[in-house]
Structures are given as structure tokens and as C-alpha cells.
Amino acid sequence: MKINIGIDEEQRKAIAHGLSVLLADTYTLYLKTHNYHWNVTGPMFQTLHTLFETQYTELAVAVDDIAERIRALGEFAPGSYKEYARLTNLKEADGIPSAEEMIKDLVKGQEAIAKTARSIVPVADGASDEVTLDLLTQRMTVHEKNAWMLRSLVA
Hints:
With 155 residues, the protein is mainly alpha-helical. The protein has a single domain (9-151), classed as Ferritin, CATH 1.20.1260.10.
């Protein structure tokens, strides 16, 4: 059936494209955070192991929320490593970094996702897409808070 939610097709496609980048960034950060959860070592092990688990669990929920919004806009959500690698703004880490380097890398990832979400705001706002704007606001709130918490762990 044709979608009739008050947002024209061109606007829905543009919003969905931005959300696809956000989805790819979020999934990439999820994988990276989960990897660091498994492989962190050192005197901050317990703190970081727990913090990383909290963050990757939240990212897993976010992936679903973002993908479902893309679908509600009438587009297909990307769902493969190949598509995520093409769309993401995040870089994979080589090897297993030190705990401090993990923290710094995750700060960059959290900040990058906040910027990706913020870049979609004008498109969604121009379409009066309050549902996507709400989702973006929630994502920016979480990522900016996570970046702050992670930054607080390093000098």
C-alpha cells in the first residue's frame, strides 16, 4: 500500500538515507564496544567491562529503533556488514588497543554518532517529521552523555 503519513516520498527517502547512516554508525559502534567489553584488560577492567556492557546493550536496542523507523518511512533498512561498512563514518580499530585507547576510541565513536544524528535534524525538521526528530534527540542525548562519561575516565 502507498504510505500517506504527511511526509512526501522524496522527504521520506532523504530521512531514511540519513537514518541508514545513523544505523550503520550505531551498529559499528555496537560491535566495537562489545569487542572492547570482551578484550579490555588492566586495573580498570571491572569498571570498563561493566560500562562497555551497559553501552553495547543500549546500542543494540537503538539499532532496532532506528531500523524500525526506516521501515515506518517506507524504506528498507540496511542489515549487512557490507552495507554498514559502506555507510558508516566510524573506523575499525586494528588489534586490541590498551584500555585508555579503547576509551578514547569509544569517545570518538559516540561523538561521531551524535554528529550524524544532528546532521539529519534539518532534513527531518523540514519535513515536519516529529517522530524522527524525537528519535534523533534521544540518540544525541545518549551519545553526548556516553562521550562525557567516557571522557571523564581519562586525563
